[in-house]
């Protein structure tokens, strides 16, 4: 059960309509119906009764909506309470994340924590998602930023962002002056990509095949830093998440063009052990990560 499940259910109860709730939430009606159905299956009882005019909560649905609203109030109040609390959070928090995220996130994350929460000592390790999942299970780390995947076992994962994928080129070698580039255009160039063991590579090849396209890969290399070095030297182009090249783009060393038509993204989640209650310091780090990612991926709000 996710926080969004609670939000979606409450919206349906408030509006007494699946279709109106779906419109208000910006999702499709079948998607909302499916999520409510999965929620009912998880709780093993019906929560809504379908009527000719919309939906009404059952007795269990009313009780669930009341408790869900209380939980959401506490969740929504958390950022404010963290910033206004007289008792500043302290302690060590260990965090794992992919190397592709670390370069863009860490300077900004450490700056925020050092300025607003100096009592938190953040320890960071780089790891692919499968490794960080094992580290969470054996308590080597407290938290892990991972790429979204279906099978997470006994972990609890909250969505952070859908991170845009970009075509990365050396200055002067970009294929267009526009900020975005069609995926079909990428079929025409030689790419520097990781091997098929990489989730990014598998995702790109799946999307290309779905669109009837073929990627032309000139170099396979399982190192984000090495891929960027080759691109910076003008030896080809690569595709990476936006966060992984923030520093290089800001310094004028690389050019990033967001891939559109269709827009390609990779979902990022923050994961922890499902049965472990997070400390105030852990919750503070999670919120700081959200704030940094929102600002630099979506811009100031």
UniProtKB/TrEMBL annotation:
One of its GO terms (biological process) is regulation of DNA-templated transcription initiation. The keyword Transmembrane does not apply. The keyword RNA-binding does not apply. Residues 1-58 form the HTH lysR-type domain. Keywords: Activator, DNA-binding, Transcription, Transcription regulation. It comes from the Bacteria. Pfam families: HTH_1, LysR_substrate. GO terms for molecular function: DNA binding; DNA-binding transcription factor activity. Belongs to the LysR transcriptional regulatory family. This is Transcriptional regulator.
